[in-house]
């Protein structure tokens, strides 16, 4: 088997066009929405590019998300999965019932209604960033001036993590999400961040404040190490994802003047636009990956126990069988049912927070900067092809 | 139309409360589904079916 081991990634993450899934995924989708794929370590698994099959597998409890059972088509990533020690509380990498126990302690904090209460504060944060951009004047780099600070500030305030420590956690999470990071680099970054958060938990235990972490500590159901693991997950997931949707989404709107104009003309389209941008851009562009816990038949294919399945969300969200004309960005389309937040029991815990942040941030950006435009040719915008979360590294803009 | 909710299955994603707040809410305590109107008027049937279909955990079902 060793001879057949591919040394390079067998799953494409480089997008030929900034907003479209890699062409190879679309070709696979046309040929067979579920097909065999050889993984980085030679494992013979599957790749799913069809919407219906991807959705079915995500909802199926016979598939696991535990890293020790998973193979990855990306060599560095594969090594990391197989050697990952899941920190206590890091429930995205757990199956029920462990996953259920942790998630249920948190879901009350992320309800639609709770997020509604956060709106004025998110609005304030977004406007403060725009005030600062206007004060400094154009040009500006939108990721560092706007897209990253908004979700970073929001998740820090919500969790109770000092925003002044952002240089540290933004650096560590970037290492964790870089597909090229080595096992040692990722292990070190994760350990570093866990130590930082563990210290924070101890400080908050002694001196509680009005935030999510203090609330969890007061609940008394979690150990310090579990609390640090939960904080790690929420902190990393809470700022990288929304930040990249804001950066990439703005780039997509700027590259599509009729859609930008439609949204400016009718701001009530914003809810739709957020869902459509998520569907169209699908920033989780590698995986998720699952492993069958038993033999499962999907669409006439027998997936054997132990086999890995990579769910190509970016392709599934463009599946013509589910989203007609799906290669077009259309902010008036009803994109509900897209898989950008996942599906099944692991569907994004913070999705209502992300929606709140995106609606408010995009709306404020368009309202406050009517002349917003790219400050470089589109081809010069550096894309995050090497990251687990796709987006733009930088977005130079003027107005 | 009668709505059934299984709060053990519910993962508190909030898709139902987001798409049809007239009928669905979430518990303050653990975010699981609270059905405000288990037998909603016919006019809401399409919205209910959509919410049921959007539920990521399969916690919702309807009896017609």
TrEMBL record, chain A:
Keywords: Heme, Iron, Metal-binding, Monooxygenase, Oxidoreductase. Pfam families: p450 (PF00067). Gene3D superfamilies: Cytochrome P450. InterPro entries: Cyt_P450, Cyt_P450_B, Cyt_P450_CS, Cyt_P450_sf. CDD domains: CYP105-like. Belongs to the cytochrome P450 family. This is Cytochrome P450. It comes from Microbispora corallina.
TrEMBL record, chain B:
Its cofactor is [3Fe-4S] cluster. Residues 1-29 form the 4Fe-4S ferredoxin-type domain. PROSITE patterns: 4FE4S_FER_2. Keywords: 3Fe-4S, Electron transport, Iron, Iron-sulfur, Metal-binding, Transport. InterPro entries: 3Fe4S_ferredoxin, 4Fe4S_Fe-S-bd, Divergent_4Fe-4S_mono-cluster, Fe-S_cluster_ET. Ferredoxins are iron-sulfur proteins that transfer electrons in a wide variety of metabolic reactions. PANTHER family: FERREDOXIN (PTHR36923:SF3). This is Ferredoxin. The lineage of its organism: Bacteria, Bacillati, Actinomycetota, Actinomycetes, Streptosporangiales.
């Amino acid at each position: 088997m060793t001879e057949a081991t591919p040394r390079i990634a067998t799953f494409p993450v480089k997008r030929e066009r900034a907003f479209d899934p890699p062409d190879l995924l679309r070709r696979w989708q046309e040929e067979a929405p579920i097909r065999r794929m050889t993984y980085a370590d030679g494992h013979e698994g599957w790749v799913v590019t069809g919407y219906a099959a991807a959705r079915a597998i995500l909802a199926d409890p016979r598939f696991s998300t535990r890293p020790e059972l998973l193979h990855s088509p990306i060599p560095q990533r594969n090594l990391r999965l197989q050697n990952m020690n899941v920190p206590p509380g890091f429930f995205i990498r757990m199956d029920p019932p462990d996953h259920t126990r942790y998630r249920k302690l948190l879901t009350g904090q992320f309800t639609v209604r709770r997020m509604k209460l956060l709106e004025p504060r998110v609005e304030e944060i977004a406007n403060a960033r725009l005030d600062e951009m206007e004060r400094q004047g154009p040009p500006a780099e939108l990721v560092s001036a706007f897209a990253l600070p908004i979700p970073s500030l929001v998740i820090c305030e919500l969790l109770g993590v000092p925003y002044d420590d952002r240089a540290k956690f933004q650096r560590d999470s970037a290492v964790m999400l870089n597909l090229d990071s080595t096992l040692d680099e990722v292990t070190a970054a994760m350990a570093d961040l866990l130590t930082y958060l563990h210290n924070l938990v101890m400080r908050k235990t002694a001196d509680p404040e009005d935030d999510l972490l203090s609330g969890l500590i007061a609940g008394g159901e979690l150990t310090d190490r579990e609390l640090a693991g939960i904080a790690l997950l929420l902190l990393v997931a809470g700022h990288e994802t929304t930040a990249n949707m804001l950066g990439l989404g703005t780039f997509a709107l700027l590259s599509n003047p009729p859609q930008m104009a439609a949204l400016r003309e009718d701001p009530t389209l914003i809810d739709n636009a957020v869902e459509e941008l998520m569907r169209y851009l699908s920033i989780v562009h590698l995986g998720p990956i699952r492993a069958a816990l038993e033999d499962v038949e999907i669409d006439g294919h027998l997936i054997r126990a132990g086999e890995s399945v990579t769910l190509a969300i970016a392709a599934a969200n463009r599946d013509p069988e589910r989203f007609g004309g799906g290669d077009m960005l259309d902010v008036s389309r009803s994109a509900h049912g897209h898989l950008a937040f996942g599906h099944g029991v692991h569907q994004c815990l913070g999705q209502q927070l992300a929606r709140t942040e995106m609606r408010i941030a995009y709306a404020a950006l368009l309202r406050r900067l009517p002349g917003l435009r790219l400050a470089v040719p589109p081809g010069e915008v550096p894309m995050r092809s090497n990251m687990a979360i796709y987006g733009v590294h930088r977005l130079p803009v003027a107005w | 139309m009668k709505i059934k909710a299984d709060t053990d299955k519910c993962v508190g994603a909030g898709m139902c409360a987001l798409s049809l707040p007239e009928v669905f809410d979430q518990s303050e305590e653990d975010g699981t589904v609270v059905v405000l109107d288990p037998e909603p008027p016919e006019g809401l049937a399409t919205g209910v079916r959509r919410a049921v279909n959007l539920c990521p955990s399969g916690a919702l079902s309807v009896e017609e």
